[in-house]
Amino acid sequence: MSFEFAYEWVLGWRYTRAGRATRRNGFISFISGVSMLGIGLGVAALVIVLSVMNGFQKEVRDRMLSVVSHIEVISADGGALDDVNETLHQVRANPNVIGAAPFISAQALLARGEEMKGVLVRGIDPELEPGVVDLSVGSELKNAGVPGINALVPGKFGVVLGIDLARQLGLRIGDPVTLIAPNGQVTPAGVLPRLKQMQVVGVFNSGHYEYDAALVMIHVADAGRIFRIEGPTGIRLKIKNLHEARAVARELAPALPVGMALRDWTQQNKTWFAAVQVEKRMMFIILTLIVAVAAFNLVSTLVMTVTDKRADIAILRTLGASPQSIMGVFMVQGAMVGIIGTLGGMLLGLLIAFNIDVIVPTLEAIFQASFLPKDIYLISRMPSDPQMSDILPVVLISLALSFVATLYPSWRASQVNPAEALRYE
């Protein structure tokens, strides 16, 4: 039995390399190589695309969480919290919570001259805010000594802007800007908007265009006065493991007073994350079909090989080889093509995925183009995050498709009649 196993593997491997030994079989070997290359490129494309999508999701999520809190405790009616200090004490009692800070959230218009932008205003406590978000200014701004949220002082009506918003309005540190609140003043002439002259005291760069172009931060006390709110409207929480945000929120809910609600970061951006998952799933299906097409090219390769090797099959049968052994020879040939193509594609895909941060900038420099405009894709560089949970299914599916593609041609080879095959030899 061990001898049969050995010669099946030897013959299968020889047929895979047939084109190197004889010119007659060169075309068959070429088709076999094309099938192998197709499988490899399909697997590589799957690995690269899934790695880039993982990296894109991780990059956007991390940058989003530099601005968005892991969990928010808010009043169910949207008003100010009744007892902020007591609520802070209750949430900090949970061992998973490592930071908590009160905030006021509102929408307004920011104007400078004739330029006007709709913005999300967040009133914060500069002392507690660093404990819930990693909202550091960009490294180039740090080196320039640009002040951040620590420059916010109650009563001074200072404002910290996202870097893209500051560029759009042409604002710099020390420039005046007008904040227009939606809750206006009732006068005999009608309802007039509330205007407040403020001064730019800082600029932040979260790396997420959506927030860098629309978020402004002021002191929580100043926000209360401008929007006529008696206290913070919510508390932002940071937890040890952001992936456990939903579970921690369920733990906190029973301890909070009636009339309060919790929402975690997955709920705040539920639509975006759902869209990314659907897109990733569809890309997996589409690219798997490419691998399937390449794998089933093996059918034509093996059919041609079986036709060409009919005399060899007949000789093996007359020497005592069983139909199962003949079938095994050609299954080994097809399996070797699938294995080499799959492993080669996986290695190529991983090589590109791990070096995509070098490859893409090089291509952008060559073609003088930006593949990821940050105002469209939220980030400006191509991220990559290869994960075994994605790569392993790709490899297994490719190998399975290659194995299935070998079954029919191998079975046909086992059914060759020795007498008929040798009649015209």
Structure commentary:
The protein is α+β, with helices and mostly antiparallel strands. The chain folds into two domains: 2-62 and 272-422, no CATH class; 69-266, no CATH class. It contains 17 helices and nine strands. The protein has helices at residues 2-16, 18-21, 26-64, 84-92, 139-143, 163-169, 209-212, 220-227, 245-252, 265-268, 270-308, 310-318, 323-354, 356-367, 374-377, 388-414, 418-422, and strands at residues 71-75, 97-112, 115-124, 158-162, 176-187, 190-204, 215-219, 234-239, 260-264. A six-stranded mixed barrel has the order 2-3-7-4-6-5. A hairpin with a 2-residue loop joins strand 2 and strand 3. The protein is elongated. Residues 1-5 and 136-146 have low confidence and may be disordered.
Task: Produce a short descriptive summary.
The protein has helices at residues 2-16, 18-21, 26-64, 84-92, 139-143, 163-169, 209-212, 220-227, 245-252, 265-268, 270-308, 310-318, 323-354, 356-367, 374-377, 388-414, 418-422; strands at residues 71-75, 97-112, 115-124, 158-162, 176-187, 190-204, 215-219, 234-239, 260-264. With 425 residues, it is of the alpha+beta class. A six-stranded mixed barrel has the order 2-3-7-4-6-5.
